[in-house]
Amino acid sequence: MRRKDREITDSDRIQEIIDACQCMRIAFADGACAYIVPVNFGYDKAGKAFYFHGAAQGRKIDLIRQNGYAGFEMDTEHRLVTADEACGFSFEYSSIVGKGRITMVDDPEEKRHGLDCIMEHMAGGGRWEYPDPMLKLTAVIRLDVEELCAKSNR
Fold it and tell me: Does some domain include residue 16?
C-alpha cells in the first residue's frame, strides 16, 4: 500500500467497514478486459469468506467457473471535502480491497449458511427458511479471502 498512513490493520475496524458496506464489487479477468459486477454480500468472519447469490447462469458464473479467482472492493463513509481552490478538494472514505479463490457452492447446508450470512448482513438477525426448490435454483458463491487491505481517509 502506497499510503501507509491511511492503512487500517485493526481487525475490529476492518469488520466495522465491512458491516457498513451495502455493496461489494467483484472483478474478474475476461480475456484482455476486466469484468466488474456489484453484488450484495454476507461475510463469514470465522471462515474469512464472503458469500453472494444470484442466477445460476450468466457471464459472472461463466467467469467463476473459468477462472476460480476474483478481486473485490467495497467502500463507505463517503464525504466530499470542499475548499476555495480546486486542488484543495479532497474525499473522505473507508475502503477494502482484496482477492481470493471464488467457487460455486453445491452443498445444500453450506448454501443455507451462505444465504444466512447474506441475510444477516443485509437484513439483520432473524430466522430464514430456504425452500429446497428455491435453493436448487439459486447460485450461492463463496469467495475465500487470501488478501485484504483496508484504508481510510478520515
Answer: yes
CATH of the domain at 57: 2.30.110.10
Cα dihedral: 103, 108, 112, 118 (round 10):
20
Q: HSE of 4 in the Cβ direction (CA atoms, 13 Å)?
A: 0
| Residue 37 · residue 25 · CB < 8 Å | yes
* pTM of full prediction above 0.85: yes
What's the rounded mean pLDDT across residues 109-124?
A: 95
- In the numeric block, the cell 492503512 is attached to 7
Q: Letter for the amino acid at 67?
A: N
3-state secondary structure at position 35: strand
Given a cut of 70, whether residue 125 has pLDDT beyond it is yes
Chain-wide mean pLDDT for the chain?
93
CA distance readout (Å), 57 to 25, 54, 61, 141 = 18, 9, 6, 12
How far apart are alpha carbons 34 and 17 in whole angstroms?
Answer: 25
